[in-house]
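User: Can you model how EPZ sits in this protein?
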Amino acid sequence: MKNKMVIVGGQPLYGSVRISGAKNAGLVLIAASIMAEGETILDNVPRICDVEVMIEILNSMGVKSGWNEDGSLSIRPPAGDMGIKTPDEMAKKLRASNLFLGALLGRQGEAAVSMPGGCDIGSRPMDLHLKGAQALGAEVEIEHGYIYARTKAPAGSRVYLDFPSVGATENIMMMASKTPGQTIIENAAKEPEIVDLANFLNSMGGKVRGAGTDIIKIEGVPVLKAVHYGIIPDRIEAGTYMIAAAITGGEIQVENIIPTHLHPIIAKLQETGAIISETEQGLLVKAGERILPADIKTMPYPGFPTDMQSQMIALLSLAEGTSVVVENVFENRFQIIDEFIRMGAKIKLEGRSAIVEGTPHLFGARVKATDLRAGAALVLSALAASGTTIIDDAIHIFRGYESIEEKLRSLGAIIK
Ligand code: EPZ
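Assistant: Here's the modeled complex, given as structure tokens:
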């Protein structure tokens, strides 16, 4: 996989782009599939590096998984026990490998998952995941960078999440689906990917109620059967292409989206002057005459998504005025700011806030992607900048954006 992207900016982008399946739904449904008896088939899973790593992990643990001719993904766990340990090297590459904790405990009452490395957006603790596992009867030890969990007498329980963690909510939902009795998750995450997981588990014979609200109730069942299921479209990929229209002064139709998942992004883009209308196929986003400043506070869903924070800063760095962007979800998600400044952006950091003073132009430069969404934000800045931008460590971008170069070229971008 190449690790560099070269973009010649300055062209308004026009055309339509089909949004792929949601990375963060695909990753958790792949993990959940190991709890099913039989072959699970998932449609609309994006072919991105993170998904390929999850498939590698599955196959190293005795699960047969791979892509079918029609582009769907098959997952066939073994009839008997499968491995309980995620392989260290692969698991370290991908925080989402921590989702095997709940899936393995749900499937066979035992799991050993690698403590996810802290990455460039903060320490990424697991305390709420472990609080949930222990509440449902697991004994947990942490040794040599691994979390070992085993349930002696699994039983449903009530778990209060101090923070509506997406991953912790998902791990508890998966474990509880196969744990006898009722489990109640309070202050649960409400992201659309949580609802997709609940719908998936229920289609397998699970009993999950309340997903999308902050109270989720789960009745454990003895068996979950394998199903054929299509995952939701990626709201963050969609939001990224919507900003591509606004930042380049063009007009893009994003297709195969669920508008309600995009409400926070639509509202904020309209505040910056973008003109957004619903069409048969999706949403039409037209750049406004000018880019207006707007203040952003990232929050758990249905607040403004943290995964769109860097992309918004790219847009606001070209606004006619000053914007304040507050990151409330991760404690350190401003790594990318220095790279924006190298392109001419005027941004000051003050604790959890980035003060973005808009400027009329950005200039191509050599920059480095620090994480997936930051990399996407650099692509947006490069599309709007005059001159050529070279993005190093572009591998981060390919982790989460299916066919991004082809999709951007089809909209008129010049990418080498
Ligand atoms: C999921 O990560 C997403 N990843 C992230 O998307 C997304 O940014 C994040 O949710 C928030 O929406 C996947 O779904 C694979 P969290 P997750 O647990 O589950 C704290 C992307 O680019 N926390 O909701 O790891 C944590 O420190 C990625 O697609 C605890 O304190 O996020 C953070 O500050 C990036 N203790 C906050 O919660 C815990 O036990 C949100 O984390 C767990 C989390």
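A couple of observations from the model: Residues 235-248 form the longest helix (14 residues). The radius of gyration is 21 Å.
User: Helpful, thanks.
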